[in-house]
Design a protein that fits this description.
The chain has 230 residues and is of the alpha/beta class. The chain has 2 domains: 133 residues, Ribulose 1,5 Bisphosphate Carboxylase/Oxygenase, CATH 3.30.190; 85 residues, Rossmann fold. Helix content is 31%, strand content 21%. It contains 8 helices and 9 strands. It has a 4-stranded antiparallel sheet with strand order 7-1-8-9, covered by helices on one side. The protein has a 3-stranded parallel sheet with strand order 4-3-5, sandwiched between helices. It has a two-stranded antiparallel ribbon with strand order 2-6. α3 links the parallel β3 and β4. The longest helix is centred in the C-terminal third of the chain and has 17 residues.
């Protein structure tokens, strides 16, 4: 695969056989982020589990101390007083059947996070085929199905992210923007890695964190020494 000059120049900053400490890797990432926009720094963690088995799933959510740097648009499915609670907390949209129909009939998707009160899951369930593949389906483990929709909105706005395994047993998550600088990115990285390590399934055997890579949106990956997370 042919890469552009900026990517190639960024790759020169990296010793590809080396496993870096997180602080050094994140510092390199901010230097390789030379695009005209504020690039997202992403974390990719390969785990020694098998996601095909229910007892080896790794999934949860965590609030990054410095947020993600992204403006998050929140849709809340609720009724009664909870609609106003969601709007007061900063949700862009809150309601019930009308939003379900808007998504189904118009293909409307102007939101980044979906939160639902438990009594609305009958309505939200009808959107499974639309929201599921996009990773937007509310889930109790991620804290997006909750009676306290106001708190969930506040957390989503503050930089709460969901982490989950893909089919290749890798977790992909944003940990901030290049403009944050290495120190704030490190705080977010430590928070997310701490949550992933804490979520280790009892059924997982052997080395838990197989590999750990950080990269800017348009930049090369920088490998982090996973030994301290095993």
């Amino acid at each position: 695969m042919k890469h552009g000059k900026k990517y190639t120049d960024g790759a020169k900053l990296i010793e590809h056989a080396k496993l870096y400490e997180a602080s050094e890797a994140l510092d390199i990432c901010t230097k390789t982020a030379t695009a005209k926009f504020d690039e997202t720094i992403e974390l990719h963690v390969r785990l020694g589990v098998d996601s095909r088995h229910a007892d080896q799933q790794v999934r949860g959510a965590v609030v990054l101390p410095n947020g993600t740097g992204k403006k998050v648009r929140v849709l809340v499915f609720a009724k009664g007083d909870k609609v106003q609670d969601a709007l007061n907390a900063g949700a862009e949209y809150a309601g019930g059947e009308e939003y379900m129909q808007k998504i189904q009939s118009e293909g409307w998707m102007d939101f980044d996070v979906v939160i639902a009160s438990p009594d609305m899951m009958g309505v939200v369930g009808r959107l499974g085929k639309v929201l599921g593949p996009r990773g937007l389906m509310p889930n109790p483990k991620a804290g997006t199905v909750t009676p306290d929709v106001g708190k969930a909105v506040t957390e989503a706005k503050a930089g709460k992210i969901e982490y989950r395994l893909d089919k290749t047993n890798i977790i992909h998550c944003p940990i901030g923007k290049a403009s944050f600088g290495a120190e704030k990115l490190q705080e977010n990285f430590d928070t997310l890695m701490g949550a992933i390590v804490k979520a280790r399934p009892a059924a997982a055997k052997g080395q838990y964190v197989k590999s750990c890579v950080v990269s800017a949106t348009m930049g090369p990956g920088v490998r982090i020494n996973p030994s301290r997370y095993i």
